[in-house]
Amino acid sequence: MSKKGRVLVAMSGGIDSTVAAMMLHEEGYEVVGITMKTWDYANVTTSKKETGCCSLDSINDAREVAVKMGFHHFIIDIREEFGDYVIDNFVEEYIAGRTPNPCVLCNTHIKWNALLKRADALECEFIATGHYAVINESDGRYFISKGKDKKKDQSYVLWGLSQECLKRSNFPLGKFTKSEIRQMAYDWGYEDLSKKQESYEICFVPDNNYRNFLKHRDPSLEAKVAGGEFIDRDFNIIGSHEGYPFYTIGQRKGLGKAFGKPMYVTQILPEFNQVMLGEVDDLLKSKINVGQINSMKYETLPNGMECTTMIRYNDSGALSKIYPDHDSVFVEFEAEVRGVAPGQSAVFYDGDDVIGGGIIQASLG
pTM value? Predict the structure, then answer.
């Protein structure tokens, strides 16, 4: 065994995870590659070609690199555990009128658990992925920090990782930019890989049309929610819609009706099959309540701490103060933020460091 140890690397077949495996191999780790089959494209109706992390081409790409580099590679099927938890939750959240983030849920409850389980079975001390983030340690606690490439930073979707997960994780790409990673692939003789495009869609919604996915997943859903009402902030009926699960907070396009001025989805009322519309200023909120908290940098989140809170992926963040209360956190923004969507994640930063995060339960003002 290598003096640096044995590391299990999650390889999707894309450039990031592949270069991560190469880097660790070059650094002297004993690398074991693993590709997780999370979804079967045949389970959803789409005209889009299989190009995501679960496609046969991607699995073959990962295996080919492992063979060339001379390390073991395994494929594991976690479709059942992934589907039961991540996909069922995705559907349930939309039916509840919320907007989920399945990548956060997968990282927190599925991917890392699956990796650690296989790492133990394969006698790997560490696991590694191709995420653009950094793991740091202070006073015996491990925490995520933003990666060097702020445009690619993925710390937002990793807030739910436990101390045990972080202690055994390695993110080799965190101190590099995407362009540097592409150059590495090219320099190692993988020209095609260096030019490989990346997918931004949810793996089980390859055409990025979650409406069609929901309808396919539950064929009776469309009939159940058809004929709902658009209402204004005074609860006046101003039109009809296709069903509340097919709309998200902040949505402006695809409302199916002209109102004479830009209108946005500001609230979803599932119990009445109603979607409230308003103008852009109606999306502004000053306070939110966040649940399912994971404290990362500190054992408990400091009461009244000033921090930056991100309420969506690629959000620039907003200055705020946090007030923990048992299993939830009350967040008060210095200036109003736009488009708070229950079901999305709120992640708290001290500079570049993630101090914790949770799921947005409600906006309060």
Answer: 0.91
